[in-house]
Hints:
Number of domains: 2
Number of strands: 20
Distance between the termini: 69 Å
Strand order of the largest sheet: 15-16-19-18-17-20
Strand content: 25-35%
Order of helices and strands: EEEEEEHHEEEEEHEEEEEHEEEE
Radius of gyration: 23 Å
Largest sheet: 6 strands, antiparallel, barrel
Structural class: mainly beta
Oligomer: single chain
Helix content: under 10%
Amino acid sequence: MSQQIASKMISLVPTNGTEFDVNSGQKVIFELQPSLGLVKGRDSYLAIDVLNNSSDNKRLMLNHSAGVDSIIDRVDIYSLRTGQHLETLQNYNQWASITNQYLFENKTNLQQLQGVGTVVNAKQNTGGNLTATVNTSDDLNNNILSPISTTGQAFYNFRRYTVPLKAGIFRYWDDERLCNVMGLQGLRIELTLASPSEACFGMDAIKSDGTAVDLYDATGGIACQDLAGAGFNLRTTDHTDFNSLGLAVGNQITVKSNVADLETTINAIADVGGGELQITLANHSRQSQLVIKLF
């Protein structure tokens, strides 16, 4: 005769804090006590709140292939009571990226829950040629971490992602079985965070004709026209809406010209009609052939 086994859901918070900067080597530690008994590891998940707190409001997105897993560089699992090493997952974010690209045909849950991009694959087949995926600021999935208002103001807030912990001890890759936490004398799970440059990056702007513009590359940037006698204002006709511009109020930028480069800050962005966006700067030297770049 079968007998029902009582079960319950629990939530755990890290033992070493609840807020962490995404810095290389930062650890987030969870402890599963032996009293938990048997844990259904494959149904367990991490709930991660991510905030873009860039000092100058850079419009950032998570790695489009790895999603929120991009912030985790390494996972180490030990017995809580004995300290015995049980499992290590190195380069966690890199192989999570590969898993997302090739293990799942339907990417909907990855996009809605785990923060991957509209295009998950690192490369796309374009006319028979493989080309690197370009992530532009007009894409809705790319904007989730860094939304802006219709005046270019940054409205960044915490975004919650839920993702399974892809670990062998939780039977992630094979037939589902319960994890015997009691027999292992508890578990200590250490997540080591990645550097910000691995976890997220800036989006490209996109022109009205669909051409992507790298705002960080030495040869990229947004072409603008100088407005003589109009204060510290520049205008562009290549980008006709705020999201396509890839910028936000507060961004620190470099204005490159044929005279001299100027580092300044964006004070305002406005739609002035006629297919033009106006960018107001904190200061500006009158020059021609202007290109705006982030730094």
